[in-house]
Specification:
Layout: E1 8-13, E2 17-20, E3 25-28, E4 52-53, E5 63-66, H1 72-79, E6 94-98, E7 103-106, E8 113-115, E9 120-121, H2 124-129, E10 134-137, E11 148-150, E12 158-161, E13 172-175, E14 185-188, E15 193-196, E16 202-206, E17 218-224, E18 233-235, E19 241-243, E20 249-253, E21 264-268, E22 279-281
Amino acid sequence: MNLSFVKITSILIGATSVFAEDGSSVLKGAISSTYTAISDSTSNLRGRYRQSCDMYTPCPSNKFCKGSDGSCFASAAVESPNVFVDESPPIIQGACKRKPSFSACVDGEDPEVCGCDGNTYICRDEAYRNGVNVDYVGSCESSDGRYIVNSGSPNRRVITLNRASCAPGTNVQLFHQLNQDHQKWIYNYETNVIESVACPGMVLNIDGGSNSNCADETNIILWYEEGVQWEKWMYSPDGKLISMYCDNAVMDIFNGSDSNGANVQLYHDTGSDSWNQKWSFE
């Protein structure tokens, strides 16, 4: 009898396959859910302290820079540490975590996720095994843009183009969700721009650009993507859209209003508990 051994990297519990490191199926049939999945959390037993990481400080090759969902700056930093060579953005730290040796995905329970590398993974663990942070839950291919929801809005209001206009200089404001393209946006983690689904090639921009002086209450508008700093935003783990042009400035709601038509503006960061400065992509 000839015996051969493979390194198992992925287990799909309750489904049909176990995958080897080369992607080939090595076992078919149902797998009992009583198997205990070895997860990344076991690495916590190896030491009391974790190594921190950020866009300038990569992790060892067997680890990745783990951030919260949407923290794609952390993944990109490890692969391209000089991506911000001409800027001095806020440094937001993650934690170096060991890549799981294999992933355990429970069929019907663990949803697909879109990784920060733009690839869809069968579950969160599989993304982590590849050293990739999760951008959002769901297939990347199914994304046609997402709402930018104010996290503190009781009515779940979202960033919306005024009068659904694509005219350059159009103001953006809060409005209740209408399931319309003029309320949907695509955040590009490579260029750090937020592009309108309704108006391709146009992005969220600080009104006046270099002439704005980064003043509080400067409008956020729609403008052509030009590769300038005042159209670039960093999405932080605590849910803030931080300007990469203006020091200590974030996207904000005028007077903390939750009304339809409330103005979206630039304002200095007023602290971690400021709900009117927190956003989520949904």
